[in-house]
Amino acid sequence: MPGQFQLSIDETVKEAKNAWDLGVPSVILFGIPDHKDAVGSTGFDPDGIVQRAIKAIKDAVPEMCVITDVCMCEYTDHGHCGAIVDGDVDNDATLELLRKEALTHAQAGADMVAPSDMMDGRVGAIRNILDENGFSNIPVMAYAAKYASTFYGPFRDAAESPPQFGDRRSYQMDPPNALEALREVELDIMEGADIVMVKPALPYLDIIRMIKDRFGLPTAAYNVSGEYSMVKAMERLDWGDGRGLMMEMLMSIKRSGADMILTYFAPEAAKVIQG
Ligand code: PBG
Ligand code: ZN
């Protein structure tokens, strides 16, 4: 993925500081462990890579809002977002793993958790375990409408997390289906989501607008790896002005109703915005 790197904890802290200094208020962490297994145990190890990175960032830049991606795919050897039972991702077995992962993130000092797995019932399951352990103040940002998208390609490559068999269509959403997004978002809100997210952003601006208008909740959009990489590719080929493309893309996402945007462009865009 152009210009994006796997970072050590030291480098992560530097990046976070740099982003903060540019006016970026928040980061989201994805972990790449040394070791992967069938249930993704390194994902809920209190001493895991993300758990240690949270502490390090909060020590260095205490005011920065540290969000964590809660999912199993980076930690499982099969690359699926949950536990496999009889050759298939098992929804309920996965909920237990996600609960442990979210709790260890909160215990390490995360300000917000963001489940991206798309299992049914995960927002409620995570909300419960956080509340039971004194973290009722930690919000859940749910990847509520997450489509099974080809635009995730560069991320899977960078995060070494492609599914080793099958695909993610049994738990991610079908691109031509708009009504399913409303149902998914409604369920997540009923289970206690504080922020709902649409992913990807650019090919789903209609979904962002629909969700913002219908529910009025803080709505996030994830400007994913493929959207970012398209711009970088055009720039490299000298086919367009990268900065202009980036700003127009981000503004269109904002115009569609997004209150916040997760984007690999954040430091670059912050520089443009600060002038
Ligand atoms: C999976 C996950 C995905 C991304 C981040 N976490 C999607 C997937 O691989 O199905 C994609 C992010 C991006 O493309 O920028 N939980
Ligand atoms: Zn996943």
List the helices and strands and how they pair.
Elements: H1 9-22, E1 26-29, H2 49-60, E2 65-70, E3 84-85, E4 88-89, H3 91-108, E5 112-115, H4 122-132, E6 141-146, H5 153-158, H6 179-190, E7 195-199, H7 205-215, E8 219-223, H8 225-236, H9 242-255, E9 260-263, H10 266-274
Parallel strand pairs: 1-2, 2-5, 6-7, 7-8, 8-9
Antiparallel strand pairs: 3-4
The chain binds ligand PBG and zinc ion.
- The mean pLDDT is 96
Q: Determine Rg (CA atoms, Å).
A: 18 Å
> Oligomeric status of the shown chains?
single chain
Corresponding CATH superfamily: Aldolase class I
Tell me the strand percentage band. Answer: 5-15%
Which ranges are low-confidence, i.e. pLDDT below 50, for 5 or more consecutive residues?
A: none
CATH topology: TIM Barrel
Explain what this protein looks like in three dimensions:
This protein is α/β, with parallel strands linked by helices and 275 residues long. It has one domain (9-274): Aldolase class I (TIM Barrel). Helix content is 43%, strand content 14%. The chain is built from ten helices and nine strands. The chain has helices at 9-22, 49-60, 91-108, 122-132, 153-158, 179-190, 205-215, 225-236, 242-255, 266-274, and strands at residues 26-29, 65-70, 84-85, 88-89, 112-115, 141-146, 195-199, 219-223, 260-263. Strands 6-7-8-9 form a four-stranded parallel sheet. Strands 1-2-5 form a three-stranded parallel sheet. Helix 7 links the parallel strand 7 (195-199) and strand 8. Helix 6 (179-190) crosses helix 7. It is globular, with a radius of gyration of 18 Å. It starts with 8 loop residues before the first helix and ends with a helix. The mean pLDDT is 96. The structure holds ligand PBG and zinc ion (ZN). The site of ligand PBG has 12 residues, from helix 5.
